[in-house]
Each structure stands twice: as structure tokens, then as C-alpha cells.
Amino acid sequence: MEAWKTVIKSLLDHVTLQYQAILSQAQAIGDVRLTNERDVEVAGLEIFVGFKGAKPVPLNAYTQSGGERSTAIMSFLVALQQHVRSPFRAVDEYDIHMDPKNREIIANLLISSVKGLDAQYLAITPSQVSFTGKDVHIITVQNVEGTSIIREMV
Amino acid sequence: MSSKRQRKKLGSGHLQRIIDLCKSVEERGLDPFLVEVDDIIQVVREYFPEWELPEELCLDAETIHRLASVIKLQSDWVKHRSTSLYTDPFLLEEKIRRMDKKELASLFLKAWHPIIELEQISPHSLSEAIKYWESLLPLGERWLKTTFLMRETEAATREELIQQRILAEKAFSEELETFWSELKQKVGPNGKIRYWDFVGADTYPETIRRAFLTSFLVTYGYATLEVHPLEEEMFIKPFEKLTSMLGKKQLVSIPVSISVEEWTKWKRGEMD
User: 0.90 exceeded by the pTM?
Assistant: First the structure.
């Protein structure tokens, strides 16, 4: 139990620092806290976030806007994925309701998070794409009168 | 002499405790790995040269016998664990197939640890999911439908995708920087400009686009708004440098109406 606590706290310290660094790019502050740490079965994480000068409050369905929630969750996910060794990651419609500025910040983060790694990131989005860089491979799929038109950017 | 007797007494006491420990593991079904075999052999070996009398040698033999029983228990434990960990996949599949649906669902719930559940799993979202599930066509019919879907693949250039607005021509932050420079050039000597004088454009859609970009300039620390409620006037003041909002007091949202009527009034110069 003590060993578990030590490992999880050390991991959380690193993830929190990265989460805060990512959030600062979106003009936000936040924190990640361990809850019920005395019992592994009921232990959990609570994500805190505060946008536009607001104090960090728990992430929930009522306080933040949809875009703010997506931004906070993606910031946490990217921070957490720095500690994941999987060579293949995928996110679907991760930028729904995000404003264009945050969409761009998160898109750049997805690219930078696999930079230098032998890994691929598959990002599916219905939004206008703002990914840039030579390592980005763009494929579009559009349903035109019952026909799926698949186009690959050359 | 007396020290030899004392050592023998100590040794026989030690062996008796080992026998009791082994007995309790055997009789009470305790974890056989509680017995440290190596340590015990060390103790038995240490006292063995002292034993001379038949009862002393019998005690030594009984210790070894009890220890052998515990080692057998350890061996059985390992054998049992190694076989129970391996389950035939066909047997497993058969077991799952024969399971009651309710039992299967409750096992799934027990084993399920969703990472994010607050938003996705609520009574409302669950009932929506059930509605969606029930409205789905049976698999067979769904496949029939998809066979009519056509698929075409082709290449596209960056320019084509920009034209179709699938790809952004330039990064949004670049667009904001350009807009910020324009604002800085347009402000008067007092370092500010009237909101409508900056946002207003020849067409209404362009006015909307400029108002949209202005809201980002203000929210993300490129500029601020100066509101004079009594005079009903609003000015935009660009910052010289990008200002971080972190750690500052909470921003206040100011709603600004950009209706066609107001745009028309501004075009006619009725806002001066």
C-alpha cells in the first residue's frame, strides 16, 4: 500500500507539472489531486481547472463551458500520455466546442507530444484542421451523396 | 559442562518451536510460505552435533519430518496456483457462453473501471444510449445498407483543402498577431480606438469576423476594452506586449451586440 502511494504520488507530481504547463498556454491554471488515497479500490483523481483568471475548481459538467472542459481533459490526457509507452495513440473528436485558439494549442501539443518518439498519433476531427508540419499526414473523408470521398493531402 | 546442558536445552526448545510452527501450518491450513525453510535448516544443522541421546535424535528427526511436510505443502501450493492460472481458452469461451446475461453484466460492471465517467455516464446519458441502441437496425440489415455505399479515393493539394475550408490557411495565432498589429496601427495618440471604428467593415459578414477576432484579442491578453456606460461608448486599447491573464483577477465577460441594424447605423455614420 505504501509502495503504491509512493509510486502514484510521484507519477502524479510529474503529470501535474506537465498539466499546469500545458494549461498555462491556454491562459488557465489547474491542479490534479489524489482522492481517497488510503484505499486503492476507491482512490481516484480530481482534476481542477480555472480559465481566464478564475481560481481552479473541480472539473465538472456544470462549472466550465464545453470547450473549457475539452481543453482541460486534453491537457490532462497529453500530460498523462508523456508517461505512456504505447507507440500508437488515437483521439476522436477531441476538439468539439473548443475555441480556435485552444484548438490550435491542443493540435500543436498532440504533434509535439510524439516528437522524437517512435510513435504515431491519430487525431479525428470534424473541425477545420490546423495541424502543420512535415510529419503531419492529412486524410479527409466526406460523404457526398452516399459516396465516401477519401482524399489524401499530397 | 553446565553450558553444554544449557545449549542443549536451548536447542531442544528451538526445535520444539519449529515443530509447533510446522504443525500449525499443516493443521490450520496456513500459508506454507510462512515457514522459512532455509533458516530452519540452518538451525537444525547448528544444533545437530550436540545431540547424543536417542530422544534428542528423535526430536531432530521429527523436526526434519515436519519440515518435509511443509515443503510438500509449498510444492502443492505452487502446483495448484500454476494450474489454476492457466485456463483453457475454449473452456473459458464455453463458460462465458453458458453464463446468464445478468451474471455476465454484473461481472462486467465489477471489472469495469471507466477513466472518465462523470459526463458520459449519467442516468440521462444512459437512457439516451439505450434509446439509440434500441433504434439500431439488426446487424444483418445494417450490413445490407452499407453495401450500397460507394467509396472513392483521390489525392488533394493543400490549396484545394484550404479552398474547401478543411485546412486553415494560416494558424489562428498568426491571424491574431496580424490583427493585433493592425489594431496597434489604427489607434489614436491616446492609445485607443472606438470599438465600431475598428470592428466595422464594408460588409456585415466581415464585420462579424472582425468582432470575433477582437473578442480573442481581448480574452487572450492582446488588448483590453474600455467601457463608458453613461456615454454608451466602448474603446479597444491594445497592449504593447502580450499580457498573461494567469494569476490576475477573474476576467469579466462583456456582451457586445453586432446586429445588422447597428452595422447599418455605423455605415450611415449615425453612431458618431
Answer: no
